[in-house]
Design a protein that fits this description.
By secondary structure, the protein is mainly α. The protein contains 11 helices and no strands.
Length: 227
């Protein structure tokens, strides 16, 4: 999935220039753009890390090696810099990405390269039931949207997992119903069955959000102590 922004490259560059020159306050720059000061600082961090090119909207995902992820996380956990300092050092587009890597590392998950991370996945899809698609999407929610890992575990293609996630994000559990005519039983599922499936996915999202909130609170406490 690419990145989309209502702010043009020129707008972001002008805002960052004013911020770094100190000619305007962060609040003033943000107010003129209809955004907040945090976003201005994020743009400035990207600019200092990746240069002006980093401010351009791109349809490609940023790719990071497993080594870069490990080094960034280890540097942060060993106290070698704040989130933003580590972000600048390794050319990471957002501190949110770094936070996610730290969360995975603390959860004893293996940090792999961006993309499929070298994991062998099926190139051809297979037929699946509605319940299987719900279970696969649920698994992705609970495992940091790791499409490659889900594809390998459930023996489906990476592209299938990607499309199911997109459909779920767009239309909820209803989006996982096969409407091509060959799955008549799915099309005729009762509202209760669909609601149960939706609830399973929402519960997974809730658990994930609760864990993230608890972890990020701890991370923020560490950040405050470092300033």
């Amino acid at each position: 999935m690419g990145q989309h922004s209502k702010y043009s490259f020129e707008m972001k560059l002008a805002a960052v220039t004013k911020y770094l020159e100190g000619s305007c306050s962060t609040e003033s720059i943000a107010r003129n753009l209809g955004t907040n000061g945090t976003r201005i600082i994020e743009w400035a961090t990207i600019y200092q890390s990746l240069g002006a090119e980093g401010l351009k909207t791109t349809q490609k995902l940023s790719v990071y090696s497993a080594e870069t992820k490990r080094n960034a996380v280890c540097d942060y956990l060993s106290g070698k810099g704040t989130l933003r300092e580590i972000q600048k050092k390794y050319g990471i587009r957002s501190d949110k990405q770094l936070r996610n890597w730290i969360m995975k590392y603390n959860g004893h998950e293996h940090l792999k390269s961006s993309g499929t991370g070298g994991t062998s996945t099926m190139t051809k899809g297979r037929k699946t039931t509605y319940d299987e698609r719900v279970e696969i999407v649920k698994y992705c929610i609970e495992h940091e949207m790791d499409y490659a890992q889900a594809a390998q575990k459930y023996q489906v293609s990476y592209q299938q997992v990607y499309q199911w996630i997109r459909k779920y994000q767009s239309d909820g559990a209803q989006g996982l119903v096969d409407k091509r005519g060959k799955r008549k039983t799915e099309h005729e599922m009762s509202e209760l069955e669909k609601l149960r499936a939706e609830n399973r996915l929402l519960q997974a999202e809730k658990r994930k959000a609760e864990l993230e909130i608890a972890f990020l609170k701890k991370l923020d406490e560490i950040e405050r102590r470092r300033f």
